[in-house]
Design goal:
353 residues; alpha+beta; Rossmann fold; OB fold (Dihydrolipoamide Acetyltransferase, E2P); 2 domains; six-stranded mixed β-sheet; binds adenosine-5'-triphosphate; ABC transporter ATP-binding protein; ATP binding; ATP-binding
């Protein structure tokens, strides 16, 4: 197990600054997930930690030791790739044992480690098979097993579940969570998938343009986003943002809506309010924060999304439980508890006190 520290890490590819000065301390045993839009630098950052790319500036420390210029094999890390990267001509056993054999470990110790990993990952029945005779989920478990037997100080996962279908993804996600609990290892994980990020992470790092927009627990990112980027990126359907103005007497004036008293925010520089779709609910006209007419209803089974057009033409999304009794074209009035309202300034920064 190990801590991983990034200090002012930068990476350029030719003229392009892909990683723009990242400071991050990953604690021993922590599960950290990197998320962000395509091209934000998630994989590059993971590959810099692995030593598969060289930093252009800054330092990387593992357990306090400077490994900035150390080759991958000297960092004590194991990486699991989206593509599994198994040897097709070798059995599952030999794939898992491969790195131990190259280290010169004795046969008995190898057998013990492979058996233990196979038991942990429920691969015991498949040890004699070749990768092509396995499902995608089983192949990824072999790739994880190969990482586990090396007893690394930390695991690095690069979108390991992306090639799996939805059901296998959910199962393998649970296995990774179990593995983390069982091994207590430091894990750094890149994904596009919000559910993976929210369910696996002790801490999510949201990246945009090679910078950290916010690094915090799933709960805090969801409940207390620092900026509109994180507010819109975390949560699906995304948070509704609407124009507002504020004053120094703690009032928020919602465009085409009422004025609220909002002592929890620095209201004077308010520019937008944010309300998540699930925090809006239907109400009577006298208590409404917002109103509009329903353009479309999406029925999702457990809940429905109402897409509502406001008087100024802007769209907002409302999530209601089960099947909505509303109909397209209907005018609806909406309210939200003040505790669920977010307020941002013109630069998109949260104005929470
Ligand atoms: N070897 C390379 N040479 C030049 N540019 C690169 C190289 N590797 C990555 N890039 C660029 O760096 C940026 C970040 O890439 P990276 O793969 O880290 O993004 P990502 O956030 O993981 O994206 P995705 O979610 O699409 O996989 C992209 O614009 C990419 O084109």
């Amino acid at each position: 197990m190990a801590s991983i520290q990034l200090r002012q890490v930068k990476k350029t590819f030719g003229p392009v600054n892909v990683i723009q000065g990242i400071d991050l301390h990953i604690n021993d045993g922590e599960f950290v997930v990197f998320v962000g839009p395509s091209g934000c630098g998630k994989s590059t950052l993971l590959r810099l930690i692995a030593g598969l790319e060289q930093v252009s500036a800054g330092y990387i420390l593992i357990d306090g030791n400077d490994v900035t210029h150390a080759p991958p094999y000297d960092r004590g890390l194991s990486m699991v790739f989206q593509s599994y990267a198994l040897y097709p001509h070798m059995s599952v056993y030999d794939n898992i044992a491969f790195s131990l054999r190259t280290q010169g470990m004795d046969k008995g110790s190898i057998a013990r480690r492979v058996d233990e990993a196979a038991r942990m990952l429920q691969l015991g029945d498949y040890l004699d098979r070749k990768p092509k005779a396995l499902s995608g989920g089983q192949r990824q478990r072999v790739a994880i097993g190969r990482a586990v037997v090396r007893n690394p100080s930390a695991f690095l996962f690069d979108e390991p579940l992306s090639n799996l279908d939805a059901a296998l993804r959910a199962d393998t996600r649970l296995e990774i969570a179990r593995l983390h609990k069982q091994l207590g290892s430091t894990m750094v994980y890149v994904t596009h998938d919000q559910t993976e990020a929210m369910t696996l992470a002790d801490r999510i790092v949201v990246l945009q343009g090679g910078r950290i927009m916010q690094a915090n627990t799933p709960y805090d990112l969801y409940e207390r986003p620092d900026n509109t980027f994180v507010a819109e990126f975390i949560g699906s359907p995304k948070m509704n943002l609407m124009a507002c103005a504020g004053d120094s007497a703690q009032h928020l004036h919602i465009a085409n809506g009422p004025t609220l008293e909002a002592p929890a925010f620095h209201c004077a520089t308010a520019h937008q309010i944010g309300i998540r779709p699930e925090h809006l609910s239907l109400c009577g006209a006298d208590t409404a924060l917002l109103q509009g007419s329903i353009e479309q209803i999406e029925y999702l089974g457990a809940d429905s999304c109402l897409h509502v057009k406001r008087e100024d033409g802007s769209m907002i999304t409302v999530r209601v439980a089960g099947r909505s009794r509303c109909a397209p074209g209907e005018t609806v009035h909406l309210t939200a508890a003040l505790e669920s309202v977010h307020v941002f300034d013109v630069a998109g920064q949260s104005l929470r006190r």
